[in-house]
Write a structure and sequence with these properties.
The protein has eleven helices and twelve strands. It is α/β, with parallel strands linked by helices and 340 residues long. Strand 3 and strand 4 form a beta hairpin. The longest helix has 19 residues. It is globular and about 70 Å long. It starts with a strand and ends with a helix.
Length: 340
Amino acid sequence: MASGILEATPETGDPHETRLEFADNRKLIDVCGAFDRNLAAIEAGFGVAITRRGNVLSLHGEPAAREGAGAALGALYARVEQGRAVEPGDVDAAIRMPTRAAPRRADQLELFDGGRVEIHTRKKVVEPRTPAQKAYAQALFSHELVFGVGPAGTGKTYLAVAAAVSMYLEGRVDKIILSRPAVEAGERLGFLPGDMKEKIDPYLRPLYDAIHDMLPGKQLQREMELGNIEVAPLAFMRGRTLSNAFVVLDEAQNTTEMQMKMFLTRLGEGSRMAITGDPTQVDLPRGVRSGLAEAIRVLDGVEGVAFRRFASADVVRHPLVARIVEAYDAAARAADAPDR
């Protein structure tokens, strides 16, 4: 039972009702959100009806649904008790992975002994919002080479960058290197003006955006000037040995087989690699095989390598994105099905 919550059955003895009594009504207001929007999200997520009277919430629905909704409310209340805000993403995470426990941890690795997984960075605490994200986050800290494979919007790159920043702040690695292949997504951009940095920055912008979420601007600028944090296209990795670094390769489906082998063999002592990509969004020229697909085939079963796969259910952007991914997957399956 979460601290500050007293659960009781109603005097009516209704088997389809569960009451949750909260010790602090002000904290409960933060849990419910403006105009009870968080309660509405939990109702929709679990298929329950929630009635609020003062500091008591009455949950109506099937036993399993009430249990899940109660656990989600308990997790959000525990979050507020810790002095942390409840954002829409936190409500979504509580619905996907309901739990009553939200303990504070002194050391990052202790997070994986049970309870809620949190990745601590300088600007924010990043929490996995689906079971697949949680397994992926755990793999990032327990394996030297991790492949995150699945559709866009599942948090593959964001969690990898968060893990890189966390390990850097803890002193477990000395450098962070973020990379992706500079491949046009079919737009034929043509000549781009400016120096080399100005030419390649548009390809690397998603990586800059992610790391800006993790570190204050001045600290990030200083670390980049010192060379401790580097954002570079894949071509710049050739000939290097990356020791004591956390290296993230994004959009790996757009690497060729030779590029992927080159990148994987850069792994040096004390380093970790996270490779992310969506095999369904390959922008390579026709007839060129994806290095990501080949690496998945070749490295399957190799000790020290972890593969974590995501599905449309793990999309944490707008709900419509998940439905779009599902629609494209269904169309692809229909196209591959043999004619009858």
